[in-house]
Design brief:
single chain; 392 residues; alpha+beta; four-stranded mixed beta sheet; 11 helices; elongated
Length: 392
Amino acid sequence: MSTKDYLEKDYYAVLGVPKTATADEIKKAYRKLARQYHPDTNQGDATKETKFKEVSEAYDILSDTKRRKEYDEARTLFGSGVGGQRPGGGGFPFDFGDLFGGTAQQGGQTGGAGERLGDLFGGLFNRGGSTRTTTTSRPRRGQDIESEVTLTFTEAVEGTTVSLRLTSSAACAACTGTGAKAGTTPRVCPTCEGTGAASRNLGNFAFSEPCRDCKGRGLIVDVPCPVCEGSGRAKSTRTIQARIPAGVADGQRVKLKAKGAPGENGGPAGDLYIQTHVKPHAVFGRSGDNLTITVPVTFSEAALGAEIKVPTLKGMPVTLRIPAGTPNGRTFRVRGRGVTRKDGTKGDLLASVEVVVPKTLDDKSRELLNEFSTAVASEDPRAELIQRARSE
């Protein structure tokens, strides 16, 4: 990507967010667009694949505080690349396109744009003709990758290992990253002598920019690789085994360090971010680190007290003692039968009782209930409720 293109691109517009967007708003917008345009869900659609790359490029810049600051400052200093005008209408005393020369960084990684711009600015105000050495050939960190996974309720609580198919930019397998066709090798650029940088003087100012002949690589490819067209980078698909830790919640984002796209020139790999989706359980619910369950009890068990069996998640049932006179909806706590925390301890199981009313009664049961109703007829459970309602 040329520095001119870098400044002219409106990454905020690509993600559909304002310039004042917070990091969370940028992340939310990226996730939505990444799911919409991801190559795995739009196989064969070149337009959406291009859109996915643009969205990823925008997020790579705006999600990094340092790169976003460089990008904002550069666009403020040089404008948005429209006719070489400064903000406020003042024009540059030289052609904007000539300043940046349309140079392009081969390799396909968007993450180095901010670094290339930093080198340009580093030499821009360096008087006396001395320039900074370009950093285009130094090791560069790989891009971060976003993925999604759907887990069962039990997998989320206890942790699991999942297989993920990832697509990212990597060194071209056909040319091993050189950009040259198999059987040929690149040659050192005679213009920059392999440094990848060229110096420029504008009156009292001197700055360093990527060499126009080798596009900042320091090498010239005479016979480009037909697979990557000389860039040295290609789309790579791989399958990895990713460990999802115990206790993840629905919608949680899990970070796996160095599981993202491979770096360039020996640089470290990026990180992998996994968005988790958890299926509901037929019996258990969740409240933070605690599991929840609703346990049906009979009227006699609630009134007289009882010991009942309560199921646990992937464990033996526990015995719960229900005291006499237990009201409907009362919650009991079973220690250590909940969700595994980061420190290895577990939350609790919260069991709420629900008094079950029989749908049908035989004659004997009806007779006994009538006798019970007569015996407690002097007690009106709604008397206090009515009195409080009248007093308000």
